Amino acid sequence: EAGVVQSPRYKIIEKKQPVAFWCNPISGHNTLYWYRQNLGQGPELLIRYENEEAVDDSQLPKDRFSAERLKGVDSTLKIQPAELGDSAVYLCASSLTPPSYEQYFGPGTRLTVT
Amino acid sequence: GQSLEQPSEVTAVEGAIVQINCTYQTSGFYGLSWYQQHDGGAPTFLSYNALDGLEETGRFSSFLSRSDSYGYLLLQELQMKDSASYFCAVRDGRSGAGSYQLTFGKGTKLSVIP
After folding, report:
1. Would you call B100 helix, strand, or coil by DSSP?
2. From CA A30, how far away is CA A50, in angstroms rounded?
3. If you measure CA to CA, which chain B residue comes closest to A108?
């Protein structure tokens, strides 16, 4: 069974530029999460989807971040414009529904904003 | 608010036993999870405790005391490949009983030496 797939794995951009991350969850997992992980820290939840509905986006900085999950499968997280402080690893995870304490993480996208 | 405390670094000898502690403060606690993350890798689920006591899975065991807001991960017969960061995460009830949101600690970097 394929795991959570994310692309790109690495991205370097200049500040004020836009960037997008893509995630394909494990087949059959209806719940999808986006996390941000800063160096030396644990993952922090940005947004959680159940199917195509965003059910928890309280920690998503909505002035510059947006996300979508069309058709309840793949998801895209976008930052526009990026700031220096956005440099981090962006992790996507999925789990069975109902949402589970056992989440399956992708390898992440390491974003560097210069 | 939610807070989790775990040691930032632990060093142990190959073949030995190591315990990684986690104390938490949260509202509406439902359970404690543990995840392992190798450098540059994805977090992977290790265990979950919802009730007091010890859960054993091979060389790894996890313990929870709800009255003390405390848990630990025990790794036995340490191997070099166990060198990684270990995160405790609480499933809290900020969003109600149906919430499955995980809040992660900052992680403990375990170094296994020969």
Report:
1. coil
2. 6
3. B42
User: How close A38 comes to chain B (CA, Å)?
Assistant: 10
Residue A31 has pLDDT above 60, yes or no: yes
For chain B, positions 5-24, list CB contacts with chain A under 8 A: none
Q: Is A10 exposed, middle or buried (0-12, 13-18, 19+ CB in 10 A)?
A: exposed
* Chain A touched by B101 (CB under 8 Å): yes
A67-82 pLDDT, tens digit per residue, is: 999 888 999 999 999 9
Cα gap B87→B70, rounded to integer Å: 14
The amino acid that residue B54 corresponds to is L
> For B12-65, how does the pLDDT look when each residue is reduced to its tens digit (9 = 90+)?
999 999 999 999 998 778 899 999 999 999 999 999 999 999 999 899 999 999
Amino acid at A106: G
Q: Which chain B residues touch A101 with a CB distance below 8 Å?
A: 31, 33, 48, 89, 91, 100, 102
With 60 as the cut, is the pLDDT of residue B95 above it? no
Q: Which of B101, B106, B108, B109 should be substituted to probe chain A, the one whose Cβ sees the most A Cβ atoms within 10 Å?
A: B101
